[in-house]
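wait is this the right file?? whatever heres the structure
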């Protein structure tokens, strides 16, 4: 068990601690601000400032505020298994460590990225030998496959361990239902700008675990810039503050000019093919569907800044053109296809212009999902009912054979008024398409009501 625990002892910071003047932190291997020759390099600022008790955890007032459920359960030591989900740097790991410290429980840490099934079984076997159930903290629990998550179930069920899982992903998708049903789920939010700024100020003057021994000063505007650009991720804000302060002499000053130089290459939080990716593309699609070009362009800009593949965005535009704009504007699909072609032929950065063009068009176009809904209803009819045979007069067969079989009843539409034949094209007619009075589809609705009054008339 020791090897499993040692392997996973070091992890990154998750939003943190209120710097305080208690006992020296074990996370600090050397004085802040660098190490002399032969001395250990100090742990990162974000690690040194981890909370040592529940009261030091900052943010999350919706689950840690006055009268909330979780603090009461922790004080009474009556909580069970917990899943903490939220974006990076919001405090998942810090909260798990603070809970263990608060109830003085043995704390076992595993990282699902590094661990495997054999290692997990060794840890669980060791936990069974303890008198009191330890807290088993599994970071990135969504990385465990089904077999690994299944292996947790017996010990979670018997209370051999108290599981605290942390994930940046949607638990309902990445955590198996039997395990999720045995856990309390708590959603953590990105930290507010005020919370981050307040914490950075304390970290700068904290001499025990922070940067206070460097005696540096930081311009107030820099604190707010650090907060605004960290996207609620306190770990990132602390790392950036430490970098800025370490670049000036002891007792120096970090002014706006230094921040401008440092902040030119801002990395926004965007994880390709993971949670932020799915959330952002969802916001993008829904903004276009809601006819808000400004919001759609904002989410497009975020995806491009985060390094999203422009062809992925273009593919979604092609889908959107038929699913959401549909027959309301016949130009939507050609424009979406042209945008996809531009992304293939031109590439970034120039194809961002084409994406902006297509995005603005889709967001401002009239909308109709009638064709999409019609296909869904036709597919449902096929799935739930016996499939109708093709009428004999619609089958593709030579005219001589049709005369011989007596099925030469097909009416050639172009020989009739308005090029519409009075003929049934299903043995049992069903209606799936209901045109909407939106954009160009209004003309379609009017025409169908005129040529097929029994089917599409008022």
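ok assuming it is, sequence goes like this
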């Amino acid at each position: 068990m020791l090897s499993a625990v040692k392997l996973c002892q070091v992890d990154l910071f998750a939003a943190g601690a209120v710097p305080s003047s208690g006992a020296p932190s074990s996370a600090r291997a050397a004085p802040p601000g660098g190490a002399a020759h032969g001395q250990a390099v100090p742990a990162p600022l974000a690690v040194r400032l981890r909370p040592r008790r529940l009261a030091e955890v900052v943010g999350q007032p919706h689950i840690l505020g006055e009268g909330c459920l979780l603090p009461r359960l922790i004080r009474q030591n009556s909580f069970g298994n917990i899943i903490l989900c939220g974006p990076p740097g919001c405090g998942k790991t810090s909260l798990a460590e603070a809970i263990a410290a608060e109830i003085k429980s043995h704390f076992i840490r595993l990282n699902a990225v590094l661990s495997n099934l054999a290692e997990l079984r060794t840890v669980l076997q060791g936990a069974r030998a303890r008198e009191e159930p330890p807290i088993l903290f599994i970071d990135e629990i969504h990385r465990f496959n089904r077999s690994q998550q299944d292996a947790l179930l017996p010990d979670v069920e018997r209370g051999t361990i108290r599981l605290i899982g942390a994930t940046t992903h949607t638990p309902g998708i990445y955590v198996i239902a039997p395990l999720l049903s045995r856990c309390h789920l708590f959603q953590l939010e990105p930290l507010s700008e005020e919370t981050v700024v307040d914490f950075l100020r304390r970290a700068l003057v904290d001499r025990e675990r922070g940067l206070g021994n460097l005696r540096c000063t930081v311009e107030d505007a820099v604190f707010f810039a650090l907060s605004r650009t960290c996207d609620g991720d306190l770990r990132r804000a602390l790392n950036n503050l430490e970098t800025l302060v370490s670049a000036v002499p002891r007792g120096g000053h970090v002014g706006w000019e230094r921040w401008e130089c440092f902040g030119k290459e801002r990395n926004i939080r965007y994880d390709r093919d993971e949670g932020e990716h799915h959330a952002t593309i969802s916001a993008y699609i829904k903004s276009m569907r809601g006819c808000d070009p400004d919001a759609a362009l904002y989410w497009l800009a975020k995806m491009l800044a985060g390094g999203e593949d422009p062809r992925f965005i273009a593919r979604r535009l092609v889908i959107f053109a038929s699913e959401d704009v549909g027959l309301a504007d016949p130009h939507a699909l050609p424009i979406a296809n042209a945008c996809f072609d531009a992304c293939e032929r031109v590439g970034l950065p120039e194809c961002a212009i084409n994406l902006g063009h297509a995005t603005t068009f889709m967001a401002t176009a009239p909308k109709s999902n009638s064709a999409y809904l019609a296909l869904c209803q036709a597919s449902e009819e096929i799935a739930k009912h016996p499939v109708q045979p093709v009428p004999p007069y619609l089958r593709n067969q030579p005219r001589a054979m049709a005369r011989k079989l007596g099925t030469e009843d097909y009416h050639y539409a172009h020989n009739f008024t308005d090029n519409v034949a009075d003929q049934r094209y299903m043995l049992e007619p069903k209606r799936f398409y209901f045109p909407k009075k939106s954009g160009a589809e209004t003309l379609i609705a009017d025409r169908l009501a005129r040529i097929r009054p029994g089917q599409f008339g008022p």
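The first helix runs from residue 2 to 7. so i think its the right one actually
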